[in-house]
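One chain given next:
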Amino acid sequence: MRKIIKTQKAPQAVGPYSQGVRAGGFLFISGQLGVDPVTGEIARGCLKTQTTQVLNNLKAVADAGGCSLDQALKITVYLTDMDDFEEMNAIYARFFPENPPARVCVEVGRLPQGVTVEMDAVCFCP
């Protein structure tokens, strides 16, 4: 059985997908952008602000799904420029100071709304 997760504390889905889906003790969180859920704005040109907002959005969906970002098993990071890796990684490390999840980071040609970073997550929800 699966449960659709939706929260006003993260940007709303702009297509035929859910913010998150919980099933079998796992929460699958759709890709999150650096969009402020209140204003709908993106901090263009500021990787630090975008990365922080992306992780806050992941956290909001995890919380709404009855989990915690501390229970993330795997995060996938999409960057439009791998030269941004160190700056993204420094912000990311603040959210996972101990026992970080498995992770993949890939460079992509383009991301929605012209952002520079996107992340999705899989969390364990006991």
About this structure: Helices lie at 47-64, 85-95. Strands lie at 2-5, 20-23, 26-32, 72-79, 102-107, 117-124.
